Amino acid sequence: MTDVRVFDDPQALGHALADEVLARYECSDRSFVLGCPGGRSLRSTYAALAERRPDLSRCTIVMMDEYFPVPPLNAHHSCTRFALREICKPLGIPEERLLAPDPGDPGAYDERIAGAGGIDLFLLASGASDGHVAFLPPGSPLDGRTSVVRLADSTRRDNLRTFPGFPSLDDVPEHGISVGLATIRDSRGVRLVLHGKDKRGAAARVRALDSFDPSWPVSVVHSCSDAEIWLDREAA
Questions:
Q1: pTM of the shown model
Q2: Higher model confidence: residue 29 or residue 216?
Q3: Which of 50, 160, 171, 217 could form a disulfide with 90 if both were Cys (CB 3.0 to 4.6 A apart)?
Protein backbone atom coordinates (compact mmCIF):
# COMPACT_ATOMS: atom_id res chain seq x y z
CA MET A 1 0.00 0.00 0.00
CA THR A 2 1.32 3.44 -0.95
CA ASP A 3 2.17 5.55 2.10
CA VAL A 4 -0.05 8.59 2.73
CA ARG A 5 1.04 11.76 4.54
CA VAL A 6 -1.40 14.44 5.69
CA PHE A 7 -0.52 18.09 6.40
CA ASP A 8 -2.49 20.92 7.95
CA ASP A 9 -2.70 23.00 4.77
CA PRO A 10 -1.10 23.47 1.33
CA GLN A 11 1.62 25.71 2.76
CA ALA A 12 2.72 23.14 5.35
CA LEU A 13 2.70 20.49 2.63
CA GLY A 14 4.69 22.70 0.29
CA HIS A 15 7.37 23.46 2.88
CA ALA A 16 7.77 19.78 3.76
CA LEU A 17 8.01 18.75 0.13
CA ALA A 18 10.50 21.53 -0.60
CA ASP A 19 12.63 20.15 2.24
CA GLU A 20 12.52 16.70 0.67
CA VAL A 21 13.44 17.99 -2.77
CA LEU A 22 16.44 19.86 -1.34
CA ALA A 23 17.54 16.90 0.80
CA ARG A 24 17.52 14.64 -2.26
CA TYR A 25 19.36 17.27 -4.28
CA GLU A 26 22.06 17.64 -1.65
CA CYS A 27 22.54 13.86 -1.48
CA SER A 28 23.18 13.75 -5.23
CA ASP A 29 26.66 14.39 -6.56
CA ARG A 30 25.54 14.70 -10.18
CA SER A 31 22.84 16.45 -12.19
CA PHE A 32 19.53 16.26 -10.30
CA VAL A 33 16.42 15.83 -12.44
CA LEU A 34 13.08 17.01 -11.06
CA GLY A 35 9.83 16.16 -12.83
CA CYS A 36 7.23 18.92 -12.49
CA PRO A 37 3.60 19.58 -13.39
CA GLY A 38 2.15 22.98 -14.16
CA GLY A 39 -1.11 24.13 -12.62
CA ARG A 40 -2.16 24.76 -9.03
CA SER A 41 -1.23 21.72 -6.98
CA LEU A 42 2.53 22.24 -6.68
CA ARG A 43 2.52 26.04 -6.43
CA SER A 44 3.02 25.98 -2.65
CA THR A 45 6.02 23.66 -3.13
CA TYR A 46 7.60 25.84 -5.81
CA ALA A 47 7.05 28.92 -3.62
CA ALA A 48 8.60 27.21 -0.60
CA LEU A 49 11.64 26.23 -2.66
CA ALA A 50 12.04 29.81 -3.88
CA GLU A 51 11.86 31.16 -0.30
CA ARG A 52 14.92 29.08 0.60
CA ARG A 53 16.98 30.56 -2.27
CA PRO A 54 18.94 27.33 -2.74
CA ASP A 55 21.79 26.77 -5.19
CA LEU A 56 20.16 24.45 -7.72
CA SER A 57 22.80 24.84 -10.41
CA ARG A 58 22.83 21.05 -10.97
CA CYS A 59 19.05 20.79 -11.29
CA THR A 60 17.24 20.03 -14.54
CA ILE A 61 13.46 20.54 -14.71
CA VAL A 62 11.40 18.06 -16.73
CA MET A 63 7.91 19.31 -17.55
CA MET A 64 5.12 16.77 -17.84
CA ASP A 65 3.17 18.16 -20.74
CA GLU A 66 2.23 21.00 -23.07
CA TYR A 67 -0.83 21.83 -25.11
CA PHE A 68 -0.86 20.97 -28.81
CA PRO A 69 -0.60 22.92 -31.01
CA VAL A 70 2.06 24.42 -28.76
CA PRO A 71 0.84 27.87 -27.64
CA PRO A 72 3.08 30.93 -27.86
CA LEU A 73 5.04 31.73 -24.70
CA ASN A 74 2.85 34.73 -23.96
CA ALA A 75 -0.33 32.61 -23.94
CA HIS A 76 -1.95 32.29 -20.52
CA HIS A 77 -2.15 28.49 -20.86
CA SER A 78 1.43 27.86 -21.98
CA CYS A 79 2.88 25.20 -19.69
CA THR A 80 6.38 26.27 -20.74
CA ARG A 81 5.58 29.85 -19.72
CA PHE A 82 4.41 28.54 -16.34
CA ALA A 83 7.65 26.62 -15.89
CA LEU A 84 9.85 29.58 -16.77
CA ARG A 85 7.89 32.05 -14.62
CA GLU A 86 7.04 29.96 -11.56
CA ILE A 87 9.84 27.40 -11.38
CA CYS A 88 12.98 28.31 -13.29
CA LYS A 89 13.15 32.08 -12.68
CA PRO A 90 12.43 31.98 -8.91
CA LEU A 91 14.86 29.09 -8.44
CA GLY A 92 17.62 30.51 -10.63
CA ILE A 93 17.52 27.57 -13.02
CA PRO A 94 18.64 28.62 -16.52
CA GLU A 95 16.26 28.10 -19.43
CA GLU A 96 18.59 25.56 -21.03
CA ARG A 97 17.98 23.27 -18.03
CA LEU A 98 14.25 23.17 -18.73
CA LEU A 99 13.11 20.17 -20.76
CA ALA A 100 9.69 20.13 -22.42
CA PRO A 101 8.24 17.60 -24.88
CA ASP A 102 8.46 18.33 -28.60
CA PRO A 103 5.33 17.40 -30.57
CA GLY A 104 7.51 17.07 -33.68
CA ASP A 105 9.38 14.16 -32.11
CA PRO A 106 7.55 12.87 -29.01
CA GLY A 107 9.67 9.73 -28.71
CA ALA A 108 12.83 11.78 -28.31
CA TYR A 109 11.62 13.15 -24.96
CA ASP A 110 12.15 9.93 -23.06
CA GLU A 111 15.59 9.69 -24.64
CA ARG A 112 16.42 13.24 -23.53
CA ILE A 113 15.27 12.45 -20.00
CA ALA A 114 17.44 9.33 -19.94
CA GLY A 115 20.35 11.35 -21.31
CA ALA A 116 19.95 13.83 -18.43
CA GLY A 117 20.34 10.97 -15.96
CA GLY A 118 16.71 9.94 -15.44
CA ILE A 119 14.16 11.58 -13.17
CA ASP A 120 15.23 11.58 -9.51
CA LEU A 121 11.88 12.77 -8.16
CA PHE A 122 8.63 13.25 -10.06
CA LEU A 123 6.05 15.55 -8.46
CA LEU A 124 2.56 14.58 -9.57
CA ALA A 125 -0.87 16.16 -9.43
CA SER A 126 -4.26 14.62 -10.19
CA GLY A 127 -7.29 15.77 -12.11
CA ALA A 128 -10.25 16.33 -9.79
CA SER A 129 -12.88 14.67 -11.94
CA ASP A 130 -11.15 11.88 -13.85
CA GLY A 131 -7.81 11.18 -12.17
CA HIS A 132 -5.81 12.34 -15.18
CA VAL A 133 -2.09 12.75 -14.61
CA ALA A 134 -0.25 15.08 -16.98
CA PHE A 135 -2.66 15.09 -19.96
CA LEU A 136 -3.21 11.33 -19.88
CA PRO A 137 -6.90 10.40 -20.09
CA PRO A 138 -8.63 7.40 -18.52
CA GLY A 139 -7.63 4.24 -20.35
CA SER A 140 -4.01 5.29 -20.86
CA PRO A 141 -1.64 2.30 -21.00
CA LEU A 142 0.78 1.59 -18.19
CA ASP A 143 3.61 1.09 -20.68
CA GLY A 144 2.89 4.31 -22.58
CA ARG A 145 5.65 6.78 -23.42
CA THR A 146 5.60 10.45 -24.41
CA SER A 147 3.05 11.06 -27.15
CA VAL A 148 0.45 13.46 -28.50
CA VAL A 149 -2.87 12.59 -26.83
CA ARG A 150 -6.47 13.68 -27.14
CA LEU A 151 -7.63 15.33 -23.92
CA ALA A 152 -10.71 13.85 -22.31
CA ASP A 153 -13.62 16.29 -22.03
CA SER A 154 -13.45 15.81 -18.25
CA THR A 155 -9.80 16.89 -18.30
CA ARG A 156 -10.66 19.93 -20.41
CA ARG A 157 -13.35 20.91 -17.91
CA ASP A 158 -10.78 20.62 -15.09
CA ASN A 159 -8.51 22.88 -17.14
CA LEU A 160 -11.08 25.67 -16.99
CA ARG A 161 -10.25 25.98 -13.30
CA THR A 162 -6.52 25.49 -13.76
CA PHE A 163 -6.37 28.15 -16.49
CA PRO A 164 -9.17 30.64 -15.78
CA GLY A 165 -8.18 32.62 -18.86
CA PHE A 166 -10.17 30.15 -20.96
CA PRO A 167 -13.58 31.79 -21.60
CA SER A 168 -15.35 28.47 -22.16
CA LEU A 169 -14.80 24.76 -22.73
CA ASP A 170 -14.73 25.39 -26.48
CA ASP A 171 -11.54 27.42 -25.99
CA VAL A 172 -9.61 24.64 -24.24
CA PRO A 173 -7.35 22.76 -26.68
CA GLU A 174 -8.39 19.23 -27.51
CA HIS A 175 -4.88 17.79 -27.69
CA GLY A 176 -1.65 17.88 -25.73
CA ILE A 177 1.76 16.26 -25.71
CA SER A 178 2.36 14.35 -22.51
CA VAL A 179 4.79 12.05 -20.80
CA GLY A 180 3.50 8.49 -20.56
CA LEU A 181 2.79 6.43 -17.48
CA ALA A 182 5.96 4.45 -18.15
CA THR A 183 7.93 7.72 -18.10
CA ILE A 184 6.54 8.38 -14.62
CA ARG A 185 7.18 4.79 -13.45
CA ASP A 186 10.85 5.06 -14.47
CA SER A 187 11.40 7.81 -11.87
CA ARG A 188 13.45 7.00 -8.77
CA GLY A 189 10.82 8.61 -6.56
CA VAL A 190 7.25 9.91 -6.90
CA ARG A 191 5.22 12.26 -4.71
CA LEU A 192 1.54 12.73 -5.56
CA VAL A 193 0.11 15.99 -4.19
CA LEU A 194 -3.59 16.75 -3.70
CA HIS A 195 -4.99 19.56 -1.59
CA GLY A 196 -8.24 21.44 -1.15
CA LYS A 197 -11.89 20.40 -1.04
CA ASP A 198 -12.13 20.04 -4.80
CA LYS A 199 -9.53 17.22 -4.68
CA ARG A 200 -11.29 15.31 -1.89
CA GLY A 201 -13.01 12.90 -4.27
CA ALA A 202 -9.83 12.31 -6.27
CA ALA A 203 -7.89 11.66 -3.06
CA ALA A 204 -10.49 9.18 -1.84
CA ARG A 205 -10.50 7.35 -5.17
CA VAL A 206 -6.72 6.91 -5.37
CA ARG A 207 -6.52 5.89 -1.70
CA ALA A 208 -9.22 3.26 -2.22
CA LEU A 209 -7.05 1.56 -4.83
CA ASP A 210 -3.97 -0.52 -4.08
CA SER A 211 -2.83 -1.14 -7.66
CA PHE A 212 -3.02 0.53 -11.05
CA ASP A 213 -6.52 1.05 -12.44
CA PRO A 214 -6.50 2.34 -16.05
CA SER A 215 -9.81 4.14 -15.48
CA TRP A 216 -7.99 6.41 -12.95
CA PRO A 217 -4.58 7.17 -14.51
CA VAL A 218 -2.97 8.77 -11.44
CA SER A 219 -3.25 5.38 -9.72
CA VAL A 220 0.06 4.74 -11.51
CA VAL A 221 1.46 5.94 -8.15
CA HIS A 222 0.70 2.46 -6.78
CA SER A 223 3.07 0.86 -9.27
CA CYS A 224 5.95 3.31 -8.74
CA SER A 225 8.98 2.75 -6.55
CA ASP A 226 9.48 5.07 -3.56
CA ALA A 227 6.00 6.57 -3.97
CA GLU A 228 3.92 8.54 -1.47
CA ILE A 229 0.61 10.40 -1.54
CA TRP A 230 0.71 13.84 0.13
CA LEU A 231 -2.57 15.49 1.14
CA ASP A 232 -3.74 18.45 3.16
CA ARG A 233 -6.53 17.98 5.70
CA GLU A 234 -9.23 19.30 3.37
CA ALA A 235 -8.35 16.76 0.68
CA ALA A 236 -7.98 13.98 3.24
A1: 0.96
A2: 216
A3: 50
